[in-house]
Structure formats: structure tokens, C-alpha cells
UniProtKB/TrEMBL annotation:
PPR repeats lie at residues 93-127, 158-192, 257-287, 301-331. InterPro entries: PPR/CCM1_RNA-binding (IPR051222), PPR_rpt (IPR002885), TPR-like_helical_dom_sf (IPR011990). SUPFAM superfamilies: TPR-like. Keywords: Repeat. GO terms for biological process: system development. The lineage of its organism: Eukaryota, Viridiplantae, Streptophyta, Embryophyta, Tracheophyta. Pfam families: PPR, PPR_1, PPR_2. NCBIfam families: PPR (TIGR00756). This is Pentatricopeptide repeat-containing protein. PANTHER family: PPR CONTAINING PLANT PROTEIN, TETRATRICOPEPTIDE REPEAT (TPR)-LIKE SUPERFAMILY PROTEIN-RELATED.
Amino acid sequence: MAEFMMRWKMGSLKRAVFICRRWRSQLQLCHHPIVACIPKNTPETSRRFTSTSNPNNSQAPDFHSWNKRISHLIRTGRLSEARMVFDHMKYKNTVTWNSMISGYVQKREMTKASKLFDEMPERDVVSWNLMISGYVSCRGRGFIEEGRCLFDQMPDRDYISWNTMISGYARIGRIADALCLFNSMPERNVVSWNAMITGFLQNGDVKSAIELFERMPKRDSASLSALVSGLIQNDELDEAVRVLLEFGNKDDSREDLVHAYNTLIAGYGQRGRVEDARHLFDQIPCHYGQGKEGDGRFKRNLVSWNSMIMCYVKVGDLVSARRLFDQMKERDDFLMEHHDQWLCSYFRYGSSLETLSRNA
């Protein structure tokens, strides 16, 4: 085993494993000393490979532990080590293959991901969706066509398959293809509708986005927030307010719409329309109660207060910002960190600390 130890210390792990397999008859005797001599800074895959190198191990393969190890290595950016573990495994299940493919997809290494996908003995819907999402995320006509080719070959599709392709087409401006897929869906969920609405907005088709939103059989706060956000990006703030007030008040499910309100307040603030932002801010209930205040609906959160205060700060109205700040019952680190910035803004806009003290 001298050659084994030499290769090990030199970092030639693959060669060491090869030598170790040649000495199978001696492996069980030297198993524990080998583990003991492994340096602490050796990668986890290297330190543990001997735990399954024993050919006399008659136990059933522990898929969970191995798959968990591969996932951990991928999450921590050690893709090559994850592949080493993958290659060392004698038995693999579908989760093992999917984990390794997912690692390559995350790194946009689609050639390696595709090679593994082709080698899989069995595939499930997750395997197909991983490859499709990988090609779609790479963008470009060639990649989207690869994704569509796999989509057409799928034996069974789920919502994720359809929604991924719809979003992919919309992102690169092929809204007609996205709409064709959307209309071809046997069943649609809320995510499908949201993906199509977002696609229209990304391509500047505000009218179609609103019409599709109005056709939705069931909406949620995410749908309304997505529409409001898209309208703001298309500089349609007044239309966003109309949609928010009309459909938000019409909704009997009492969805938490505060995110949509906050998005619109921030949009007004970015354009210097502070009065419009404040008008909208005042329409968000202050308290979460069952009486008149709030009426059991959503309430202002810290983001609401922060957004409105920063609207004032951006236009130099630090007096109003300070007044609103003093009305807050809860404050977070964001506002405390920006407190000094407010003071600097007073000097920038010609105000003084005396003005702050007099009007606070």
C-alpha cells in the first residue's frame, strides 16, 4: 500500500482509488488506518470514499445519504467533487441523476447536462423539466429550439413544463409562440396565466395583458402584483392604480394586496409624484382589525412606510419624511441606516438642522 499512500499525499485521488481497488483483498484490513491518515482539509468526497469502497459491503445502497452529499457539494459550488462522487457510485437512482443534471444546468453547462440526460436509464418529469429550463434560461434562438424539441418529445408534461416554455418564448420576444402554447394547454393554473400576462407586459402589449387578466377565472395577489409591476415598467402608472383599486376592492378573498400597493408607491416615488404616492399610501389600512380600520384586510407593513418615506427623501421634503418616520410604531434597520442620509439631504436642499427641530 506504499504506492497508495504516495498517490494519496500527492493529491492523485483517482489513481489512489484505482490502486485501492487492486488491493481488494487487503482493503478491509487497512480500511480504518487509511481513513485515519486522511488530512482534515481533504475534500469531503475524498475523506469518505472508502466508506463504500469495500466490495464485501452487502448492505443496500444508501441513496439518501449519497444524494444528499451530491446536492450539498453542488450547493457549495463544488461541482467537480459532486461529479466525482456521482461517478464513484455503483448504484444510482433517478434523484441521483437529476441532482447531477441540475448542477450542470445551474452552471449553464448544457453539453454535460445533455450527455448525462442521454445516459439516464430512466427519466421522470423532473429530468425533462430540468433540461428544458436549462435551455430556456440560456436564451437565444438555438437554445430555445433545443428546449422546444425536448418539450415535444416529453411522454408526459406538467404545469412546470408548459409554464417554462411559455415564459421562455415571452422572454425572447416570441410572444405569438408563447400564446400558441398557452392556448394549447389542456389545463392552466394561476402561474400559467401570470406567465402569459407578464409576457405581454415584457413586450409592451399592455392592452392584451389587461384583457387576459380580466379573463382569469381565479386571480390572486401575485397576479395583481405582477400586472401592477408590469404596468409601472411600461410607464402606465395611472392605469396601474385603476386596476389595483378596481380589482383589489372587487376581490372577495381578502388577498394580501399590500405588495401591489407598495410597488405602485415606489413607482410614483421614482417619478417624483409624491402626492399620488401619499394618496395611495393613505388608502392602505393602518391596523389589522375586524372593525372599520382594515376591515379584516391587509395592512401597511414596513415596506409601505419605508417606500413612502423614501419618496419624500428623494424630492428633498425631509420634514414630511421625518413626520412620517415619527408616526411609525415599528422601525427596521433600513430606516435607521438611512437616518444620517436624511440629515445630509437637508444640507443638499438648503435646509438646516434648526428646520428639522422646529418642524419635527
